[in-house]
Amino acid sequence: MKxxxxxxxxxxxxxxxxxxxxxxxxxxxxxxxKLTQILRGMGSLKPEERPIIxxxxxxxxxxxxxILTETKNKIAQLEKEKKMKIEYLDITMPGKLYKYGHKxxxxxxxxxxxxxxxxxxxxxxxxxxxxxxxYNFEALNTPEDHPARDLQDTFYITSDILLRxxxxxVQVRTMExxxxxIRVISPGRVYRSDEIDATHSPVFHQMEGLVVDEGITMGxxxxxxxxxxxxxFGEDTRxxxxxxxxxxxxxxxxMDVSCFACGGKGCRxxxxxxxxxxxxxxxxxxxxxxxxxxxxxxxxxxxxGLGIDRITMLKYGIEDLRLLFENDMRFIEQF
Length: 335
Prior knowledge:
By secondary structure, the protein is α+β, with helices and mostly antiparallel strands. The protein folds into two domains: about 1-85; about 105-330, BirA Bifunctional Protein, domain 2. The protein contains eleven helices and ten strands. The longest helix is centred in the first third of the chain and has 37 residues, at about 50-85. It is elongated and about 115 Å long.
């Protein structure tokens, strides 16, 4: 036992790696180690000798374990110090600049608009961008000879399938699937055959709103849109409704808001009129309700639509629509 301890002590003192320490542990204290081999011979001892040898064996095992642990800690510390020298980090050096994502101004505007209408009890409805002419025109009371259906204004895929020109088809699909009361908004991309310039694009964004229930009036429409205008443009914002025509609403109107740049006094932004047009609206035409399976004798509703791109340009004073589609981070990071 004494000779085994001295041999182990000598070998452990020469070890210079954690792998060697583990090998020596197995060599002397493992299941097939030297100490175990000696203890297997205890069966040949006299009964009175076994406790004495067992005690000596435990002492030797404890001493070897202590030496192994002490040496292992020393080697680990040395390796750590060596690693720290190799991996030295100069904390005075400038770090790397990591750029984080930034919300597009149009996304920021849409998020704000959705928050306002969700707070008014509306939900969000979606529909396909590749649409049937029935939902894009016929179900919205738009006759076949209407100018909006011309080839120069619309991207047709086939004679009865097109890229939707407005988000209004979502109204029809919602009314077909949902019984009143209905309160939804439907933001999304729309497509029209326009030349690209500072104020036009063949791809742009709209948001439609629809409310259908018993007893809905034009007064409800004005009340909802007044709240929206004040929440979005500021509490001092005033609104004005002008008569207009849309095939799917009757009566129809366009809504202006007092210029948020000059407060209605007149400036370059509002064309010195004090007012800015932001959306079209009206009471849902009885024909639209009827074609969607809703009884116009029992239910009435209102609808409105606004251009997300236009609202964004107005809110942030952007003069060229193309800037919203170029994804130049120098422009986007300003908002």
